[in-house]
Every structure is written in structure tokens, then in C-alpha cells.
Amino acid sequence: MANRFQIRQHEIAYKFIAARDGDFCLQCKKKPPAVKLQIDHADNDPDNWDPENLHLLCQKHNLELRGKTAAEHKRLIRTYSANNERERARERGRENTHLVKDLVDFRNASPEMKANSYYETQYREWLLTIVREHGFITKVEAINSGAEVVGCSPLTANRYLSKLTSSVGPLKESKDATGTVVISFR
Questions:
Q1: SS3 10
Q2: Which domains does the chain carry?
Q3: I need a surface site. Which of 5, 62, 76, 156 has the fewest CB within 10 A?
Q4: Which DSSP symbol is given to 42?
Q5: CB 172 within 8 A of CB 183
């Protein structure tokens, strides 16, 4: 029988994982109350409570992964996590941008920093929504319309776009059949 400490440890771990990854099955994305989520140990060691080893899975997928070797189990968890991170980036942009905006007190910052903390987040959300809904946007429209929508300069919008299309950003530049540069998801 589990004691109060074990129950509390489980509750804390669950809340941490849900805040980090989302309160859903890492594999099938089902959420409570549709499924009961369990804490999965990627290395198949129930005594290893290292946060990087813990993930939420529904009972069905947790049982499926228990039958895998630790190496295969970890590989599948990494794949599911990477897919979820890409989906989150498509929804909101990279989480770091939002975390910094929430954590940093810009009240005492320069006017440029205050403006940037607002404009960049708004631009990213606007652009990711457009690309998600339409599949692509021309680069010229991404810069000029984005600047108009969020109220920044086209030069600033171009800098934000450059970050989003960098090697670690969720977007890419390519040319369509007419040679026009378009922006789409990787």
C-alpha cells in the first residue's frame, strides 16, 4: 500500500509533467477524463524519478511501451516528444519567447525592449496562425502585412521572420512554381 509521501510524490511529478508537456497522452494526445493518464518511466525503471525520464501516457500506450526494450522505449518517447514540440511551435511559436515575456519585468526597460516584448510575440502568433490556416504565405506578405497587423516596422517584422525561418525555427522559406518566396512549416 502506498504511503502519503509516495502519493504526494506522484501528484507533484504528475503536475510537473503536465505543465511541461501538456496534460495528455504523449502518444495518442487523449486527455482526461477520456483516459486516465499514467506516469511513464522511459528507461523502464520505476525507481528512476529523474524528470527527463518521466512522461504521461494513457494506460493502453503505457502498457504497450512496457513491452519494449529500454532503448526502443526511449527512442519512441523522444519521437513523440519531438512531434509534440513541433505541434506546440506551430500553435504558439517557441515556448522560450512566451516564457521570457512572462518572466521579465519590462516596466523598467527601454522603450525598444518594451515594444519588442509585445510586437514579437504578437507577430509570431499572427504568422503561425496564417501559415497553419493557409499552408503558406508569401515572404513579402509575411513582412508587410505582419508589420501592419501588429504595428511594428517592416524592418522589425523582417527580423522576426528571419528568426522564425532560421535553422531552429518552425518555418522555412522556399520558392513556388512562379519563383515567389513563400513561408511554410518545416
A1: helix
A2: 4-91 (no CATH), 93-185 (1.10.10.10)
A3: 5
A4: T
A5: yes
